[in-house]
Amino acid sequence: MANCDCEVALVSGPLGLTSPETTLGAGAIVEFLGNVRTLENGKPIEGIEYEAHREMAEYQLRKIAQEAAARFDLLMIKLHHCVGFVAVGETSLLLRVAAAHRGAAFEASRWAVDELKKRVPIWKSVRFQAGSAREKERSVPALA
């Protein structure tokens, strides 16, 4: 692994999205933004509440970043995920990788997101819009 700049974080509140930095020697910088969609299973939502086991999530994010850097010979990887409420249209996941060649950057991006979904203890709870069918289902009292 070359000297890779690895940065991981769990962020409360909005991600501070910035333009990609220039990375010396990088022929490719690939950025993936995971945004909250307007629908969940066809029902309108307000957003998603993310919870995490903070220490374990940060540990796993760091491991994924380090493994990606070694596996794909990355020059830089930034992996940030939000915790707390993220409204529709906002970004909950930022992944930015830099590599000498585009193939490695694209492959590393796909691999890192797949590994994050498998290994990082972050849970989501969808907040449906008031009055939606799903919201009405939740408001029905449980029968004893």
Give a brief description:
The protein has three helices and seven strands. By secondary structure, the chain is of the alpha+beta class.
Q: How does this structure look, described?
A:
With 144 residues, the protein is α+β, with helices and mostly antiparallel strands. It has one domain (5-14, 29-138): Alpha-Beta Complex (Aldehyde Oxidoreductase, domain 3), CATH 3.90.1170. It is built from 3 helices and 7 strands; from the N terminus they run E-E-E-E-H-E-E-H-E-H. The protein has helices at 54-72, 102-119, 133-139, and strands spanning 5-12, 28-35, 39-40, 43-52, 76-87, 91-99, 122-128. Strands 1, 2, 3, 4, 5, 6 and 7 form a 7-stranded mixed β-sheet that branches. Helix 1 runs antiparallel to helix 2. It is elongated, with a radius of gyration of 18 Å. It starts with a strand and ends in a 5-residue tail after the last helix.
Structural class: alpha+beta
CATH class: Alpha Beta
Average pLDDT confidence is: 88
Radius of gyration: 18 Å
- Give the strand tally: 7
Report the uncertain regions.
Answer: 136-144
CATH topology: Aldehyde Oxidoreductase, domain 3
Helix content: 25-40%
Number of helices: 3
Largest sheet: 7 strands, mixed
| Count of structural domains | 1
Based on the structure given, which CATH architecture is correct? Alpha-Beta Complex
Order of helices and strands: EEEEHEEHEH
| Gap between N and C termini | 59 Å
Describe the global form: elongated
For this entry, what is the oligomeric state of its chains?
A: single chain
The CATH superfamily is known as Molybdopterin biosynthesis MoaE subunit
Strand content range:
35-45%
